[in-house]
Structures are given as C-alpha cells and as structure tokens.
From TrEMBL:
The lineage of its organism: Bacteria, Pseudomonadati, Pseudomonadota, Gammaproteobacteria, Pseudomonadales. It comes from the Bacteria. The chain crosses the membrane at residues 14-37. Its main location: membrane. This is Type II secretion system protein M. SUPFAM superfamilies: General secretion pathway protein M, EpsM. It comes from Halopseudomonas laoshanensis. Gene3D superfamilies: General secretion pathway protein M, EpsM (3.30.1360.100).
Amino acid sequence: MNAWWAGLASRERVILIAGMLVLAVLLIWLAIIEPLADGRNSLRREVAALSADHDWMQQVAPEVRRRASSQAGAGAIGAGNGSVLTLVEVSANASGMRSAMTRVQPEGQGARLWFDSVSFDALVRWLAELETRQNLRISQLAVDAGAAPGLVSARVLVEPR
C-alpha cells in the first residue's frame, strides 16, 4: 500500500485526500446529522400536536366538570347521551371481554350486545360488574351453548337503572 501511495504523483495524492475528506463528511452527515435533524423535526411536530391537544382539553375541562357534576347530582351514572355505550365499551376493554364482543348496537337508552365463543364464567362475572360497579341493569340475556365446553354465545340488553 505504501509503495502504491509513494508511486502516485503529488496531485493524485491531493485529489485522493480531498475525496476521502468529502466521503468522510458525507458519511458523517448521512449517518449522524441527518437522522438527528429528522428526529428533532419529528419531535417538534409531536410537541405542537400535543400542545394543541392540551389547549383543547383545557378549554373543554369546565364543560366536562359541569356535566360530570350534573350526572352525579342526578344519580344517573349510566343514563343519557350514549353513556351506557361508553360504560360498556370501557368496562369490556378493561375486563378483556371486548375481543369476544362481535356487535354492539344502541337500543333506546341502553345497548344490545352480541358475544361469540366467550367463557360463560367470564361473561357472568363481567355482567355482575356492570350491574354493581357501573349501575347498569341487564334486562335481557339469551345464552346458547358453544362448540367447546364452557364457551357460549350470548345476546345481552344492558340498560340504565
């Protein structure tokens, strides 16, 4: 390698050194500086979006507090404005029942739910939780045996108390 280098003219050495410097700068730029700049821009956009979300939440917070206090004062935890659907969805997600729920349909002030291949024990526990913790009433329940032991298909009508 030294013999090859020594065999080059000084002009060729300068050109090779300059090319290596340009290549090194280009590699540093592409491998380090550009990804950092992209990440920084991405974080700036995310901060701007989250700031806008925060501002919106601050604007609607008094309305949310007013509605929460009016519902709590009226004793209608599960009544009105689709809150039965919300309570059912949140509770189903928390208990893991959402994956077995195949259909949810509003009906009057309540909701009609369909389940396929759900554990009977888990379904009964979840329905009991809806009645005790969410202050909802199970007004209709139809259960059919499933293909495997312990699994059922069910149709449930949940209404506010």
